Amino acid sequence: MLRSLHMLVLALATTLAGASSVTAITAETALRANREFPAHRVTDFAVQAREAHQQTALRYGESASDSSLASRALPAVSRVARLTQEGVEHIALRHFPTSGASGAGKFATSSLREVRSLINEAVEKGAVRANTAGRPGNIFEYDFGRQIGTNISGNAASNLRVVVTPEGVVKTAFPY
Asked: How far apart are CA 153 and CA 98, in angstroms?
């Protein structure tokens, strides 16, 4: 698995660098690595990084392959999050429908199994961004297209926000 990860990193780095002389080799390597890494775990990191690299290079009047930006790799975001006892307790005490906490989004269900399923889907399919106020970790947001609870104002909510630590542990999750 470590070898496959190395091959995937090599393929991504080559893609970012725009090195055409090894494109055939890295394309094969990326295909092999892709078989071993499920799609939901490999984010769209390469596409985003390549686009950002090309846009920045063009702003400075250089071609994307000439730029040294390729050496500045961005960290990949894991699409897997662990729900610990601490996370479960926080979510249940503040965000379950039976909670008396004010100023918090509430789930429509008290089923931990259903909440865990919602969290997993949001992390797997949702938009991701860095946590706010300089806090470490990421925030995943996903619109289920159906009511999953109520927002902070008590109105129907179809979106879920999941805050995940850099170690991949769910800190909190709530409808908004």
From this structure: 16
Whether 22 and 93 map to the same domain: the answer is: no
Tell me: do 97 and 165 sit in the same domain.
yes
Tens digits of per-residue pLDDT, 101-110?
Answer: 999 999 999 9
> Which pTM was predicted?
0.60
Spell 4-37 as b/e; 16+ CB within 10 A means b. eeebbebbbbbbbbbeeeeeeebeebbeebeeee
158 and 107, same domain (yes or no): yes
Residue 86 has pLDDT above 70, yes or no: yes
Residues 62 and 98 both lie in one domain: no
Q: Which amino acid is at 112?
A: L
- Percent pLDDT > 70 in the chain is 57
